[in-house]
Amino acid sequence: MEIQKTALYNYHKNLGAKFVPFAGYEMPIQYKDGIVKEHISTRTHAGFFDVSHMGQFFLEGDETLIESLEKIIPADLKNLKINHSKYSFLLNNEGGIIDDLIITRTEKGFCIILNAACKENDIKQISQFLKDNHKHLLNNDLSLIALQGPKSVEILDKLIPGVANLKFMAGNNFDYDGEKLYVTRSGYTGEDGFEISISNKKVEKFIDYLISNEVKPIGLGARDTLRLEAGLCLYGHDLNEKINPVEANLKWAIAKKRREVGGFNGWETIKNLLAKGSEKIRVGIKPDGKVIARENTKIFSSENNEIGFVTSGTFGPSVNAPVAMGYVKSEFSEIGTPIQLEVRGKKYGGKISELPFYKKSYVK
Amino acid sequence: MSEKKFSKKHEWVSLDGDLATVGITKHATEMLGDIVFVEVPDAGKAVEKEGQAAVVESTKAASDVYSPISGEITEGNKAIADDPGSVNTDPEGASWFFKLKIKDKGEYDSLMSKDEYDKFCKENPS
Predict the structure, then answer these.
(1) Under an 8 A CB cutoff, do A322 and B60 touch?
(2) ipTM
(3) What is the domain count for chain B?
(4) Nearest CA to A95 among A262, A304, A336, A212?
(5) Sign of the CA dihedral with A272 first, then A114, A240, and A352 last
(6) Is B62 part of any domain?
(7) Contact A344 B55 (CB under 8 A)
């Protein structure tokens, strides 16, 4: 498969981006400032992220569209109001997570933001449940920009008046430079911020404005440290098709009504696990010292029994310490439980920690 | 203290009698990015030329640091283990990694000069 580029590829290049292949795209991992500075400037001012590699999947249809989608998505789509969004997943028959996503109710149907690496398969999986009168489109003419950080609202509202009135996980259409764009108050850093869906033709001009307001470009490197500090999962690492939402400690994202009534893929399994608990569960992990427990690090109990593994681990610049997430046997999941992390053949102490590591500042 | 010599794995060595000081080059730190963890060897450890001797981690990944020269470690720089970020600011000065008593000065002589190393980096960008 040919490597793909987002509409901003040359723009990133001019900003001094270092690129890496990611999910079939050539994406910036960092810019000149480096990951730590990019991370800190997002937390203290504002940063922008080109997330145009993610799928913007639009669906249109009558009431039967909701029934179709609810077979594979365990959110309460019937009661989702227009311009409101939910974090949810696509589930397989065993309750495993095919992808995690944000779904927004639009006037004509829904928009689903899909992970880049999963989007083609996601669409296949969703399509199985669609009827002939349901229209769908993966819109590649749109870029997606995340603007994150405490100054985001002030900066964006100056350009697009009204966005300041949006609440977390809500969106709307706005006018910009003679075009419509769709803005939601959301993101994946733990900061207040927005995601802006904008045509590829206008995106450079929009970024020019952000940069003139000292918004820094942020690469995938800092995106990873920011989301991990915020305790948010990265698909393909913390989540996969063999892990279900109960194990992933994401049962909050399954609507209460739907837990009871079911009617979605994997409901039997999930209902069972909700009642009796899962064998393993996703937890936060804090190494005691400076050692970084990266993905696949084995986790041992204080009695030296292997109890789990790390799925994401890095240094958290705002926490100023290493942070990690992983799966442990449920009996070891209590906050504060001492554990050992095997790094380069040596065992280092650590503890099960609360998530997030860094307090979220969403505007609700 | 002798002039600094350089390895293809981006370490530098300076020599004072039979005592060598080893660190990673500025070029290496620029490739690694923000350094957030360092593990240095304990005194008494024997290291081989091009053998793994220390660990350096950036926000992105962990990398081994090799000794460009054989010998016995006399000291690991605890200051950089306590403050890994200092490796980014002064990699070829205060933020050396370890000192070792060398066995064969020939190994030092065979390393690259500053000019040769700069040329090597230009020809092998990564």
Answers:
(1) no
(2) 0.83
(3) 1
(4) A262
(5) negative
(6) yes
(7) yes
